[in-house]
Amino acid sequence: MKKITENPKLDFERISVLYENTNVGYFGIAAGVLFFGYIIDQLASIDVAYPWMIAVALAYVPRVIISITFARKMKAREITFENVKPWENYFFYSSIVPFLCFSSAVFIPYEQNEFIALLYYAVIVMTLISGSILTYSTSLPAIFLFMNASMLPLIAKTFWIQEALFNALGLLLAIAYVLISRLIPRQNRLLVENIALRIENEHQSLTDPLTKLGNRRRLYLLIETLVPSSVRRKDPFSIVLLDIDNFKQFNDEFGHSAGDDLLVQVSDILKDCSRDQDLVVRYGGEEFLLVLPSTNLESAQILVDRVRLTIKEKSSITFSGGIAMHSEKHSFDELIKKADDCLYTAKSEGRDRCIFAEP
């Protein structure tokens, strides 16, 4: 379980689910506060009910602001795998005060209506906890915080009062607390494992099984965001289309197994020579495509030279390529066509070279 939760992609997914569910959960919390505010009004005093509801509402303001900020940053793609983890802590710490404010209802003096009030509170809390198991289930710290803050003061209060009815209620709640405490980690583990499985399935559908590079589906998912972003920021990107020279001859001479090993070796070299923000794709049988964000033709050529040098150091093969830079006037398919034309020219001129497309 530890290895699963340390996965940045998994953290991104489960924390995103936490915030998405919380937006819906606010309606349940609001309903619970209004209903118990009415109970306080009927069993204690309107002078206590209003301040309690106002205090709970104000306590939730920071967390609502954090939720709105998270949604805005997610929409702007400012939250990534690398920086999402602290947002779970932001959620946790911003939840402490509102949860405690809500549970303060236990200590309101109800006089002769004490048992009825605590019974109503217990029903509301158990209802909210059943919802919170779904709402906060991707974050164990958050859900245990809510359960401890809402149930433990109530259990303590029922045992503090030396009466049989209160003690019986406290015993039932204590049993429920133990059972829920055992249920929550299991629920969390199943949910996290399902998210991890979905991520793995998505990864496999976007990955070439032999080289572990991205495939064409992964490429076009990136292009959907890269092209508009590049045009908006006036920050062009380049692509490099590479093809191993005489690959069929290599296969015929050494066998298909050796050919597969060569493809894996070239793939590893391309990944090692690329930057973190670059995308390396197996575009065809022995064709590879590199998408280089914020890169002009000269910088793309530097990367290609680094790849060529590394390949010659580690193998006896060569490759040909075409390099093209995106502009607003052309679609991505037209950019691919330009790079492919350059690749064809490189092949026809003797191989072992890369040709630039005209900007």
C-alpha end-to-end distance: 51 Å
Shape: elongated
- Adjacency order of strands in the biggest sheet: 2-3-1-4-5
- The portion of residues forming beta strands comes to 5-15%
Poorly predicted sequence stretches spanning 5 or more consecutive residues: 1-5
Helix content: over 70%
Which sequence of SSEs, written as H and E, runs from N to C? HHHHHHHHEHHEEHEHE
What's the alpha carbon Rg, rounded to whole Å?
Answer: 30 Å
How many strands, which pairing sense, and closed or not: the largest β-sheet?
5 strands, mixed
Mean pLDDT: 89
Number of helical segments? 12
What does this structure look like?
This protein is an alpha+beta fold and 359 residues long. It folds into two domains: 2-205; 216-356, Reverse transcriptase/Diguanylate cyclase domain (Alpha-Beta Plaits, 2-Layer Sandwich), CATH 3.30.70.270. It is built from twelve helices and five strands. It has helices at residues 2-5, 8-43, 46-75, 86-103, 114-135, 140-160, 164-205, 216-233, 247-254, 256-273, 297-314, 332-348; strands spanning 238-244, 279-282, 287-292, 319-325, 354-356. It has a five-stranded mixed sheet, with helices on both faces. The model is unreliable at 1-5 (pLDDT under 50).
Secondary-structure topology with pairs:
Elements: H1 2-5, H2 8-43, H3 46-75, H4 86-103, H5 114-135, H6 140-160, H7 164-205, H8 216-233, E1 238-244, H9 247-254, H10 256-273, E2 279-282, E3 287-292, H11 297-314, E4 319-325, H12 332-348, E5 354-356
Helix pairs in contact: 2-3, 2-5, 2-7, 3-4, 4-6, 5-6, 5-7, 6-7, 9-10, 10-11
